[in-house]
Design a protein that fits this description.
Elements lengths: L7 H22 L4 H36 L3 H21 L1
Helix pairs in contact: 1-2, 2-3
Length: 94
């Protein structure tokens, strides 16, 4: 089962994040105060987490839901394993 997933609604957020990262680079180049740089880095990280959360929720609402509404036990098991794997991976990052 293939899904056409679009992420166009996240592109503006990612462009803003890109601008934040470029701003951090300028701050470092200009020798700005370390704490101010750290705050901006964490703001960009938070924004990336937000986009990732939105994509993850969309995946559950669409791809996972479709698999569970279908008849294929194989697809259902595949989605469960996929979610378990990504959650385990995300826990390693925190």
């Amino acid at each position: 089962m293939r899904h056409k997933t679009t992420h166009t609604e996240n592109l503006n957020a990612l462009r803003r994040i890109n601008g934040q990262v470029e701003g951090v680079q300028r701050m470092i180049k200009d020798g700005k105060y370390c704490i101010d740089v750290i705050i901006q880095i964490h703001a960009a990280i938070h924004a990336l987490h937000s986009v990732g959360d939105k994509i993850f929720i969309k995946h559950i609402e669409n791809c996972v839901k479709d698999a569970f509404l279908g008849k294929s036990k194989r697809e259902k098991a595949k989605k469960i394993n996929e979610l378990a794997k990504v959650l385990k991976s995300l826990h390693k990052l925190t």
